[in-house]
Amino acid sequence: MSERTSPTKDQVERRAYELYLERGRADGQDLADWFAAERELCGFSQRPISGAPRGRAASAGQRVTASAGRVAREKALVQ
């Protein structure tokens, strides 16, 4: 059985920056780019797990943005 090695921080940083450039330097997706770079460099597939809901999965950045929006709406209701 082959042993997986973890990518270095520099390797992940470089790949995340490449992803940022590929997206046209659009800001706000730094965490999503970082996690995508880690997945790629570790050799993990981006396919959904069997039995997982079908459709486009939200990126980490999209989940954070959605959560922040929900929290802001909830705070507005309380005030």
Your description of this structure?
This protein has 79 residues and is mainly α. It has one domain. Helices cover 58% and strands 0% of the residues. It has helices spanning 9-22, 30-42, 60-78. The chain is extended and about 45 Å long. It starts with 8 loop residues before the first helix and ends with a helix.
Summarize the structure.
By secondary structure, the chain is mostly helical. The protein is built from 3 helices and no strands.
What order do the helices and strands come in, and which of them pair?
Elements: H1 9-22, H2 30-42, H3 60-78
Helix pairs in contact: 1-2
Key terms for this structure?
79 residues, mainly alpha, 3 helices, extended
Q: Biggest sheet: strands, sense, closure?
A: none
Q: Cα-atom Rg, whole angstroms? A: 16 Å
User: Strand percentage, roughly?
Assistant: under 5%
Distance between the termini: 58 Å
Shape: extended
Percent helix, as a range, is 55-70%
Count up the domains. Answer: 1
Could you tell me the number of beta strands?
Answer: 0
SSE succession: HHH
Q: What is the tally of helical segments?
A: 3
Structural class: mainly alpha
